[in-house]
Amino acid sequence: MTKKVALVGGSGKLGTIIAQVIDELDGFEVVRSLTSSSELSELDGADLVVDASTPQVSVDVVRAAVERGINVLVGTSGWSAERIALMRPLVEAAGTGAVFVPNFSLGSVLGSALAAAAAPFFSSAEIVEAHRDMKIDSPSGTAVRTAELIAASRSEQGPVSAPHADQRARGQQVASVPVHSLRRPGVIARQEVILSGPGESLTITHDTVVSAQAYAPGIRLAVPFALDARGIVVGIENMIDIGIQARS
Length: 248
Prior knowledge:
The protein is of the alpha/beta class. Helix content is 31%, strand content 26%. The protein has helices spanning 13-24, 55-67, 81-94, 106-118, 141-153, 216-228, and strands at 3-8, 28-34, 48-51, 71-74, 97-100, 124-131, 172-174, 177-183, 189-197, 200-208, 231-234. Strands 2-1-3-4-5-11 form a 6-stranded parallel β-sheet, sandwiched between helices. Strand 3 (48-51), helix 2 (55-67) and strand 4 (71-74) form a beta-alpha-beta unit. Helix 1 (13-24) crosses helix 6, helix 2 runs parallel beside helix 3 (81-94) and helix 4 runs parallel beside helix 5. The radius of gyration is 18 Å and the shape is globular. The two termini are 32 Å apart.
């Protein structure tokens, strides 16, 4: 039986790609495409809600889906670990699943995993991320997730060294990691994680350089996964074997 998907934010850049991928997936169909201003009662009857809206709207979409007993896949940026934690009691009480994906790009997920694996060996870590000038939130969800993974991997070593963090030019600290956000034309998405120690540094860079279709493979993994998920799940790394487990 074909599963009915309600897609919120289907007319945006990410939402358009998600709609195209779902159209190609066996057993799934987008039966409703909502805008950020649509009535959330339009979610009624869906088997899965996919959210690609805005940070301001996303929390209402997640809450509305869970309250209706519908699993939700969240591709909207702006969901920090603290914000996701606020949803956990609601999701667990409803017995549903909420899957949060900071980045659908497999290369980005691998880059974040490599940064987390390397972080315990370096005293310093900073993130520089760049997105198109139309992106309304910063830091990006990917940068927030990467910083949280770095901090989790350094549980024995403690926070990274971040001197002069009180100065605004030093970026925004996320889980002790300074994050610097660039918003400019001519770029889709780029993230650098710069790890430094005495006498050396390691830079892990991921670029989405040609097309946002780089997100399609991750979407193909995430949609079927989200349909049967239970509880809170964060990140594509839970759907592929890359040797690192997400900490929700």
